[in-house]
Amino acid sequence: MAGYLKCHSSNLNISRGKTHKSAYALFVEFCREKYEANELQSLRLPDTNNRWIIFMKHCMNLWGNMSEEEKLSFQKLANEINSDVVVPAKKEQQKQMKRDQRNCMKCPLSPFYFYCEDYHVEIKKQYPEYSLAEIALKLGSNWCAASIDIKQKYERIAESDYCKFIENY
Hints:
This protein is 65% helix and 0% strand. The chain has helices spanning 23-36, 51-65, 68-84, 89-101, 111-126, 132-145, 148-168. One of its GO terms (molecular function) is DNA binding.
């Protein structure tokens, strides 16, 4: 069987797709071609729904028993096919856009956020032993207990920030 599975690009009718293919994927494609052409005499698949599972297990066993030289021919073919594959520019643009969007604001900031920006350092100085979660709880309780004047001050800041957000996005 080992000599039978020698891979030569002239024997294979492998389609050059848009995606990268591994040596094993090419080997499975090769075995499937041979099976469909009734050239794999050692493999008799039952006519059931799970016949392709059995086929894949058979391919896995064949691949595991192949020598490195035999696998190398499939690897060479994979390298040849994958050298032709070009990543479309659209995907690169999408990746770049995702990188750019990581730093942009998703929504305008709330008044409480601006309050936290101002008072976080102050509370950290007062209670240096507090963890971040405890500081957040303290900021929340202080915000609830804050006077209307303080809340209105931060609501005005948040409103101006909202206007900037709408202009930019």
